[in-house]
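Mods, move this if it's the wrong board.
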Amino acid sequence: MRMEKANVKASMSTAQLDGNAEQKRIRELQEKYAEYQLLEEQIKQVQQQIQKMDSQLADLESIHEGLEDFKNAAEGSEVFVPVSNGIFLQANLASNKKLLVNVGSSVVVEKTVDDTKKLLGDQQVEISMYREQLLAHLNKLPEQMQHLQAQLEKMIREQRPEHTH
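Not the wrong board. Structure tokens:
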């Protein structure tokens, strides 16, 4: 009788250990899957940031071209000044030498066209550099996802008893 009680206790302890190990494996699998999903989301966010930067760079290029047209416009000529997206007002150009530029915190300073173009060029360089950093980061993420996917697949295979060797 004592031997049977000892065997039952040993079986119960083994079953508890197996249950705890199973719970641990499930928890690890869930954590890996959550990490995989986070990487997917991070890829989407980085792609969106790159798209925004591409749009900003295109806008800056368009502004740069507009400044060149402004610089070459004759004083006193009729111009259309954008008020809002798709809304313009008609005006006569008093001077093509100076611009009023918002430099942040609602502070506006007078700048020449060339100084303004340089400021825009500096912004383009800064955005381009940051864009390249994001691209480098983006290019590393699929490799991390593949590594995680391989880990997940291995964990799932090990989870299935019929596939054990």
